[in-house]
Design a protein that fits this description.
This protein has 2 domains: 146 residues, Methane Monooxygenase Hydroxylase, Chain G, domain 1, CATH 1.20.58; 36 residues. Helices cover 89% and strands 0% of the residues. The chain has 4 helices and no strands. This is Golgi SNAP receptor complex member 1.
């Protein structure tokens, strides 16, 4: 029984040691994740970026991830041994206590595995983002350097097209103005011709002109008479209303 008790204590000691080592590794691993995604590509010249630092970070990430995975694997083996021990013994201490202790160590292992996978996933996502941003930035700079002359030529071509379009619009407006001038001149000549014909017709037939004048005089006289009658009627109506 003493041998079995010593075996249990030895397993617990190994489990606690591995848990401490894993905890320290996870803290360092988490700090390493904060170094990714901090590069400012907007204010950075890609030609002066130290490629060695990125390589070292990747190497450190892979190395630390491998170390943590190995420690987690060892801790899992220790937990399995503790589980086997708790199921086979029942003499040195109550079996429920062993199961509780073994379950606690297994929960710690699960927490460490979850934290490790979460941190690893975040770091990998940041690495992929860094690679994508770097690639996009390099493509943009390459495009700017290779197509600056082409863009300037495109600007000149567009400006030339704008000038030609403006010239066409001015020509169209001048053509419209010329056609309008011709139409007005034609109408003026037509009115002059009509006026000349009327004058000639009146001169040839003076009696018609005299008749027209008489008609106009009669219309004016009738208007005066009608206005006088309306005025008298209005005055009488006002007098009647006031009295």
């Amino acid at each position: 029984m003493a041998t079995m008790g010593n075996q249990w204590e030895d397993l617990r000691r190994q489990a606690r040691q591995l848990e401490n080592d894993i905890d320290l590794k996870l803290v360092s691993f988490s700090k390493l994740g904060t170094t990714f995604g901090t590069r400012d590509y907007k204010n950075e010249d890609l030609d002066t970026v130290p490629l060695l630092s990125s390589t070292n970070s990747d190497h450190m990430f892979d190395s630390m991830a491998l170390d943590i995975e190995q420690l987690l694997s060892k801790l899992s083996d220790i937990n399995d041994k503790m589980s086997d021990y708790a199921q086979t013994q029942g003499v040195s201490m109550p079996n429920s206590t062993l199961l509780h202790t073994q379950q606690r160590h297994r929960e710690i292992l699960q927490d460490y595995c979850h934290e490790f996978q979460k941190t690893k996933t975040n770091i990998q996502a940041r690495r992929e983002r860094e690679e994508l941003l770097g690639s996009v930035r390099r493509d943009i700079d390459s495009y700017k350097n290779s197509s600056s002359l082409n863009r300037r030529a495109d600007v000149y071509v567009k400006e030339h097209e704008h000038i030609r379009s403006s010239d066409r619009m001015v020509d169209e407006q001048i053509s419209i103005a010329m056609r309008t001038k011709d139409e007005l001149r034609s109408q003026r000549n037509a009115f002059k011709s009509i006026q000349t014909k009327i004058t000639t017709f009146a001169n040839r037939f003076p009696m018609i002109n005299s008749l027209v004048q008489r008609i106009n005089l009669r219309k004016r006289r009738d208007s005066i008479i009608l206005g006088s009658v309306i005025g008298v009627c209005t005055i009488l109506l006002i007098l009647y209303v006031t009295h």
